[in-house]
Amino acid sequence: MEINRIDSVGEYSNLRGAETLHPMINILDYDHLKILEPATYNFGFYCVFLKETKCGDLRYGKESYDYQEESLVFVAPGQILTVESYLPDIKPKGKVLIFHPDFLRGTALSNIIKDYSFFSYSSNEALHLSKKEREMVLNIFATIEDELQQNLDKHSKTLVISHIQVFLNYAIRFYDRQFITREHINKGTLEKFEDLLNTYFLSDKPQSIGLPTVSSCAETLHLSPNYFGDLIKRETGVSAQEYIQIKVINIAKEKIFDINKSISEIAYELGFKYPQHFTRLFKQKTGKSPIEFRNLN
Question: Domains in the chain, start-ordered, CATH in brackets?
Answer without folding.
Answer: 4-181 (2.60.120.280), 184-296 (1.10.10.60)
